[in-house]
Design a protein that fits this description.
The complex is a heterodimer of chains A (154) and B (716). Chain A has 154 residues and is α+β, with helices and mostly antiparallel strands. Chain A folds into 2 domains: 4-75, Beta-grasp domain (Ubiquitin-like (UB roll), Roll); 85-149, DNA polymerase, domain 1 (Orthogonal Bundle). Chain A is 35% helix and 14% strand. A 5-stranded mixed beta sheet of chain A has the order 2-1-5-3-4, with helices on both faces. In chain A, a hairpin with a 2-residue loop joins β1 and β2 (11-15). Chain B has 3 domains: 4-180, Aldehyde oxidase/xanthine dehydrogenase, molybdopterin binding domain (Aldehyde Oxidoreductase, domain 4, 2-Layer Sandwich); 203-276 and 335-411, Aldehyde oxidase/xanthine dehydrogenase, molybdopterin binding domain (Aldehyde Oxidoreductase, domain 4); 283-325 and 422-715, Aldehyde Oxidoreductase, domain 4 (2-Layer Sandwich), CATH 3.30.365.10. In chain B, α14 packs parallel to α18 (685-701). Chain B has 716 residues and is an alpha+beta fold. Chain B has a 7-stranded mixed beta sheet, sandwiched between helices. In chain B, strands 1-2-3-4-5 form a 5-stranded mixed beta sheet. Chain B has a 5-stranded mixed beta sheet with strand order 14-22-21-20-15, with helices on both faces. The chains are: A alpha+beta (154), B alpha+beta (716).
C-alpha cells in the first residue's frame, strides 16, 4: 500500500491510508488537524471546507488520492496568528455562536475574497448558501465578509 | 436574595489567593426530586498573580454562557475582563446537578453570581483598607485594583491572601444597573478567537493517546436487535480492529473514523434484524390515533370558567385543527462521545447538556459508581436540547468497555444522528373559540394530542405535571378570556422523544397565536387591537404558581408593532403578521413578520422582535440569540421527520432541509430597558416567530396555513 504525499499548511506529509479515504479524515484522524469539521459526510453542509490549490473544496468529498500533489490549507493554516482579514472580521462582528461550522465558513469566505475582493450579496449568497449554520449566524457572516472586503472597516 | 449559606469561603491551599465557593444548583427537572446541599460548588478565585479564575457551571452550546455568566461576577467584582480565566465545571462531589437547558442559565444563577462577586470585592477592599489603615469607605475599585486615598493603589492579586483571612460579608452591597461597566454593553464571545483558528475543542475533537474510533450499526427500527450478521465483512476492511455487540447494536472499532464507517457499512450489507414490535410504526397511522385522541380523555392543564356552556352560548364558534410534525435537532456536530473504561474507573469526554446524568448513566452502564467516572465537558457543536440526552455518552462507555483497551471515540454520522435522534414529537391541536355578538372572545378551548416528551425523558413514567409540561405555551396564554380549557391527550409513540429548542412551546404557541389571528379576523378586528384588548390594562396576573406581568407583554407587543410599521401600506403581495408570548412566564417577546408570496414561493423579508428579558447582560449576544431563534423558526416551516415501516425516512440535510443564508430574513431586535432580574433568550424567539410568519402569509394571501411543514401546493 503506497503512502500518499500531500502538502498541508506548507508541510509535506506522507500518509499511509486507503486511497478512498476522504481528505477530511486524513486531516482529522491521521494528521490531528481537528479544526476541519465533520458535518454531513455528503458535501451538503460545508463544515469540512478546506483550500485545495487555493480553491474551496469539501474535504469529505475529496479522496486522498485526488489530493496527492496538491497544496492543502486548513483553518489552522489560514494565517499564522488568526490575522487573516476574515478571521479578524469574524471577531469584530462576533459571528460565531456554537462555532462548529465556522472554520468551513471562514475557508469558503477567504476563497471568495481571493476570487472576488469586493463580493456582492449575490456572490456571498452563492458561496455561503452552500453552507449550513444551525445556530443561524448568517446575518453576521454576511456582514463580516463585507467588513473583511473593506479591509476591516464596518 | 441569596441567603448567607448560599456562598461560603473556602480555605484554599497556601498561595491559592482568595477562593470563594458558591452554591449553584440547577433547578431540578420536572419529576426529579429537589435536593438541597450546601456544599460549595462554583469557584471564584483571585490568584496572587492577579488572575481571576471563574468556574462555569453551564455547558456552552452557542448561547453564550461562558461569556455571560463570568461577566456577571466580573461586573460586581470590578475585574479586569481581559484577565479572567474560565474553568469548565465537571460533575462530581462539587457539582451534583449540572444541567443546561430551558433558557434558565442566567435566571437561576444571576443572584448568586452577583452576590459572590460583590462579597469578594468587599473583602478585597477590606484587605486594602486594613493594609493602608483607612476606612473601607474611602476606597473604591476599578478593573482589578483597589484605589485608596492619596493615590494608593493595590492589585487584587496582592490583596488576595489577606482578603482570604477576612469574614465573608453577609449582605454585600450590589451595584445598581446605572453603575454597571460591563453588563449592558456588547461583549464578544470569549471562545471566538479559538473558534476562528480552529482551536476550539468540541467533543468530536477529543484526541487521546492510543485512541480508536467506532461506528455503531444500529437497527433502523427503534427496539430492533441484530439477528444474523457476518463480522468478517467488517474485519476485512483495512483498519478495522473488532466488531463488538453493545446494547444499541454492533460497534465496529477501527484505527480511524473512515475505517469504522466503511466497516460498519460492510457489516450492514450482511445483517438481518429482529425488528421487534415497532416495525409497522408510521406517521400516517399515528396521525389517525392522534385525531382520535382529540375526542378521547385528556389531562387538564388549565381550566377556568365553564368552557362548554360558554361555547354553547357564544354568538359564533370557530374551530380549527393545527398540526406540527416530528422534528430532528441536527446539531452541526453530530452526536459523539469518547470513553476510556478501566476496571477501576472511567473517563469520558463529551459535549453534554446533562453532565451529571451522563456521568451517572455511563457509570451504571459499565458497572461503576458515578464518582469513579470522570466526565470532561467539551464545547457543544450545537445543543438545542439534543445533548440533554445521554444515549450517546452511555453508548460510548458501553463500546469502550466491550472493546477493551484504551479510549474509543464513538462517531455518529449524519444519518445516525437524524435517524436515532430523540425527536421533537408530532402534535395535533384542536382549537375552539366562542365570540360574542360584539366580537369579544368569551371561550377558548385548546386540546393537544401527541407523544409526551416528559414521559420519554423519565424512562416511561408519567409525571404529575405532564399535562402542564406538554401544554406549556398553550395553558399560559396571557389573554383575559372568561372560560378556558387547555388539555393534553397523550398518544403513545415508540420512538424516543426529547427537548427541542423551545420545546413544546413551539407547536403550542404556533397553534395558539395563529388561531387567535383567526379569531380576530372572525370578529372583524385588527389582530393587534384584538390582542391588546384581550391583554387589557392588567398588571401582574397569577398563572399557576408564577406571576406574569401583562404590562410587560403589552409593551413589547406595542413596541414590535410600532417598529414594524403595523398598519402601513405594503407592497403588493406582502403581508404583516404578529404574535406574542411570555416564555415560561419570564421572557416577554413579540414578533412582527413581513412576508411575500410570489408564484407560490414564500419569502420572509423581515422579522421585527421586541424583547423584555429584564436586565440585558450582553446586548450583542442577546441579538444573536434572537437572530438564531428566527433562523430556527424559518427552518421549522420546511423540515419534518416522518416514519415509515418503523424507520425515520429522512437521513441527511438533502431530505431534512434547514435554513440557508439566501433565505435568512432581516432580523431587527428591540430591547426594552428594564431593571428586572434577567431571564433567558436562547429559546424564546422561536415560538413567536413561526405564528408571526404564518399570520403574515394569511395577510398576504388569504391562505391560512394550519399544518407544518409548508408544502409547495399550500401556496400554489
Amino acid at each position: 500500500m503506497p503512502a500518499f504525499q500531500i502538502t498541508v499548511n506548507g508541510r509535506r506529509r506522507s500518509v499511509d491510508v486507503d486511497a478512498d479515504t476522504p481528505l477530511l479524515w486524513v486531516l482529522r484522524d491521521t494528521l490531528g488537524l481537528t479544526g476541519t469539521k465533520f458535518g454531513c459526510g455528503q458535501g451538503i453542509c460545508g463544515s469540512c471546507t478546506v483550500h485545495q490549490d487555493g480553491k474551496a473544496v469539501r474535504s469529505c468529498q475529496v479522496p486522498v488520492k485526488e489530493a496527492t500533489g496538491s497544496s492543502i490549507v486548513t483553518i489552522e493554516g489560514l494565517s499564522k496568528d488568526g490575522s487573516h482579514p476574515v478571521q479578524r472580521a469574524w471577531i469584530e462582528e462576533d459571528v460565531a455562536q456554537c462555532g462548529y461550522c465556522q472554520p468551513g465558513m471562514l475557508m469558503s469566505a477567504s476563497a471568495l475574497l481571493t476570487a472576488h475582493p469586493h463580493p456582492t450579496d449575490g456572490q456571498i449568497d452563492d458561496v455561503i448558501g452552500d453552507h449550513i449554520c444551525r445556530c443561524g449566524t448568517y446575518p453576521r457572516i454576511r456582514k463580516a465578509i463585507h467588513r473583511a472586503a473593506k479591509g476591516g472597516a464596518e | 436574595m441569596t441567603s448567607r449559606r448560599d456562598f461560603i469561603k473556602v480555605t484554599g491551599a497556601a498561595g491559592a489567593g482568595l477562593v470563594l465557593g458558591l452554591h449553584l444548583e440547577a433547578k431540578p427537572r420536572p419529576g426529579e426530586a429537589a435536593t438541597r446541599t450546601f456544599r460549595p460548588n462554583a469557584y471564584l478565585a483571585i490568584r496572587p498573580d492577579g488572575r481571576a479564575v471563574l468556574t462555569v457551571p453551564k455547558s456552552e452550546m452557542g448561547q453564550g454562557v461562558r461569556t455571560s455568566l463570568p461577566l456577571v461576577i466580573a461586573e460586581e467584582l470590578d475585574l479586569d475582563w481581559s484577565r479572567v480565566e474560565l474553568v469548565q465545571a465537571m460533575p462530581g462531589p462539587d457539582f451534583r446537578h449540572l444541567g443546561t437547558g430551558g433558557s434558565t442559565s442566567v435566571s437561576t444563577t444571576w443572584t448568586t453570581l452577583r452576590t459572590a462577586g460583590a462579597a469578594a470585592r468587599e473583602m478585597l477592599v477590606a484587605a486594602a483598607a486594613r493594609n493602608w489603615g483607612v476606612p473601607p469607605g474611602q476606597c473604591r475599585t476599578e478593573k482589578g485594583f483597589v484605589l485608596g486615598p492619596g493615590g494608593k493603589r493595590a492589585g487584587y492579586g496582592e490583596l488576595a491572601e489577606t482578603a482570604a483571612k477576612l469574614p465573608v460579608p453577609k449582605t454585600p452591597k450590589l451595584k445598581t444597573p446605572a453603575e454597571f461597566r460591563l453588563l449592558g454593553r456588547p461583549t464578544r464571545r470569549v471562545d471566538g478567537p479559538k473558534i476562528v483558528v480552529g482551536k476550539a475543542l468540541f467533543g468530536l475533537d477529543t484526541r487521546r493517546p492510543g485512541q480508536r474510533f467506532a461506528a455503531v450499526l444500529r437497527c433502523p427500527v427503534v427496539g430492533g436487535t441484530p439477528k444474523v450478521w457476518d463480522a468478517s465483512k467488517a474485519l476485512a476492511v483495512r483498519g478495522v480492529k473488532a466488531v463488538v455487540p453493545v446494547p444499541t447494536g454492533l460497534a465496529v472499532v477501527a484505527d480511524g473514523t473512515w475505517a469504522a464507517f466503511k466497516g460498519r457499512d460492510a457489516l450492514a450489507s450482511s445483517i438481518s434484524w429482529n425488528e421487534g414490535p415497532n416495525g409497522d410504526f408510521n406517521s400516517k397511522d399515528l396521525e389517525t390515533r392522534m385525531r382520535a385522541a382529540l375526542d378521547g380523555p385528556a389531562d387538564t392543564a388549565r381550566s377556568t370558567g365553564a368552557v362548554v356552556p360558554a361555547l354553547a352560548a357564544a354568538a359564533r364558534v370557530i374551530e380549527a385543527e393545527y398540526a406540527f410534525p416530528f422534528q430532528a435537532h441536527t446539531t452541526m456536530e453530530p452526536m459523539n462521545a469518547t470513553a476510556h473504561v478501566r476496571l477501576d474507573g472511567a473517563e469520558l469526554w463529551v459535549g453534554t447538556q446533562s453532565p451529571n446524568t451522563a456521568q451517572e448513566r455511563a457509570a451504571a452502564a459499565v458497572g461503576l459508581k458515578p464518582d469513579q467516572v470522570k466526565l470532561n465537558v467539551a464545547l457543544l457543536g450545537g445543543g438545542f436540547g439534543r445533548r440533554s440526552g445521554t444515549d450517546f455518552s452511555t453508548e460510548a462507555a458501553q463500546v469502550a468497555k466491550a472493546a477493551g483497551g484504551g479510549p474509543v471515540q464513538v462517531v455518529w454520522d449524519r444519518t445516525d444522528d437524524i435517524r436515532h435522534d430523540q425527536f421533537h414529537p408530532a402534535t395535533l391541536h384542536r382549537l375552539k373559540a366562542g365570540l360574542d355578538s360584539h366580537g369579544g372572545l368569551g371561550a377558548w378551548s385548546h386540546r393537544i394530542a401527541g407523544g409526551a416528551v416528559l414521559r420519554s425523558w423519565l424512562g416511561g413514567k408519567k409525571a404529575p405535571g405532564q399535562a402542564e409540561t406538554e401544554a406549556n405555551g398553550a395553558w399560559d396564554l396571557p389573554y383575559d378570556i372568561p372560560a378556558l380549557d387547555i388539555s393534553f391527550a397523550e398518544v403513545e409513540v415508540p420512538v424516543p422523544l426529547g427537548w427541542w429548542r423551545a420545546i413544546e412551546i413551539v407547536p403550542n404557541v404556533f397553534a395558539r397565536e395563529c388561531f387567535l389571528d383567526e379569531a380576530a379576523h372572525a370578529a372583524g378586528k385588527d389582530p393587534l387591537a384584538f390582542r391588546l384588548d384581550l391583554l387589557g390594562k392588567r398588571g401582574q396576573v397569577k398563572l399557576g404558581e408564577e406571576e406574569l406581568d401583562i404590562a410587560r407583554l403589552r409593551k413589547v407587543l406595542e413596541l414590535a408593532a410600532g417598529k414594524a410599521g403595523w398598519g402601513r401600506t405594503l407592497p403588493k403581495g406582502h403581508g404583516l403578521g404578529l404574535a406574542c408570548h411570555a416564555y415560561d412566564r419570564r421572557t416577554y417577546l413579540a414578533a412582527v413578520a413581513e412576508v411575500s408570496v410570489e408564484k407560490g414561493k414564500l419569502r420572509v423579508h423581515r422579522v421585527v422582535a421586541a424583547v423584555d428579558c429584564g436586565i440585558v447582560l450582553n446586548p450583542d449576544g442577546l441579538a444573536g440569540q434572537v437572530e438564531g431563534g428566527v433562523a430556527w423558526a424559518v427552518s421549522a416551516l420546511y423540515s419534518q421527520i416522518t416514519f415509515e415501516k418503523g424507520r425515520a425516512v429522512q437521513e441527511n440535510f438533502d431530505t431534512f432541509p434547514v435554513l440557508r443564508l439566501p433565505e435568512m430574513p432581516q432580523v431587527e431586535v428591540h430591547m426594552v430597558a428594564s431593571g428586572e432580574a434577567p431571564s433567558g433568550m436562547g429559546e424564546p424567539p422561536v415560538p413567536v416567530s413561526i405564528p408571526a410568519i404564518l399570520n403574515a402569509v394569511f395577510a398576504a394571501t388569504g391562505k391560512r396555513l394550519r399544518r407544518l411543514p409548508i408544502t409547495p401546493s399550500d401556496l400554489a
